[in-house]
Amino acid sequence: MSDRIRVVVGGVTGWAGAELARGVAHASDMTLVGGLSRGAAGQPLASLTGHRDTPGVAAASIDALGATPYDVYVEYTKPAVAKQNILQALAHGAHVVVGTSGLSDEDYADIDAAARKADRGVLACGNFAITVVLLQKFAEMAARHLDHWEIIDYAKAGKVDVPSGTVRELAFRLGEIKQAAQAVPVDQVSGPRETRGATMSGTQVHAVRLPGFQLGVEVIFGADGQRLHIKHEAGDGSKPYVSGALLAIRRVHTLRGVVRGLDKVMDGL
């Protein structure tokens, strides 16, 4: 890896990707060498980031980057193309940071195999906000002591992927501890089973898509005579995610294969 980390941001004009691209362009130890955006293809990255020393132009696809050398690819595009982008970046010899939601556990198993074959790291973060990292850690602590829990996924009305990457990651991590207990198994309920949500990694997950929400996740733990709610809510801006994403870019080279969760590269967590 060169002295400055050469970064490509997929989704360079998106809600989160645009803010991250500006953060990368202004970081003293990084250089934004490429960005993916179909709508802005051909536009100078310097104009998109507001950093005049940023080289190159936005590309319509990862294929269009050609032989451009880069150390880390950040996936912030769409679920439909995310997996292929990641596999192509690994084949190119880059490490990968994943912020896109919608990838399944099966997708990550395929990506893990490709990453290990390429001797590269993939850091999958459903959310880069420090408050989400804390929610995940607190929920894992609770799951070691409580047996019953369910997750509610909140997002804006137009979000098509369900659940969010944050919730997928949370369910996966809780499932690594144990499966949530159910007083009445889903296959034994009376009425439409869909009302009990989807079972993901042994946890019932309920996705809410309504105007007025941006992003949020709540895990509810229940025990006899008591209840614990752990909840994260995001505002409209994407700046809270930049510092965590920059940390992921700086640390992903220390990993091999797929590692899920920003806390895995944070000292002291």
Please write out the topology.
Blueprint: E1 5-10, H1 17-26, E2 30-36, H2 45-49, E3 72-75, H3 79-92, E4 95-98, H4 105-118, E5 121-124, H5 130-143, E6 148-155, H6 165-177, E7 198-200, E8 203-209, E9 215-223, E10 226-234, H7 242-251, E11 257-260
Parallel strand pairs: 1-2, 1-3, 3-4, 4-5, 5-11, 6-8
Antiparallel strand pairs: 6-9, 7-8, 9-10
Helix pairs in contact: 1-7, 3-4, 5-6
How does this model look, in words?
The structure is a single chain. By secondary structure, the protein is of the alpha/beta class. The protein is 30% helix and 24% strand. It contains seven helices and eleven strands. The strands form two sheets. The chain has a six-stranded parallel sheet with strand order 2-1-3-4-5-11, with helices on both faces. The longest helix is centred in the first third of the chain and has 14 residues, at 79-92. The chain is elongated. 43% of the residues are buried. The mean pLDDT is 91.
Summarize the structure.
The protein has 269 residues and is α/β, with parallel strands linked by helices. The chain has helices spanning 17-26, 45-49, 79-92, 105-118, 130-143, 165-177, 242-251, and strands spanning 5-10, 30-36, 72-75, 95-98, 121-124, 148-155, 198-200, 203-209, 215-223, 226-234, 257-260. The two termini are 26 Å apart.
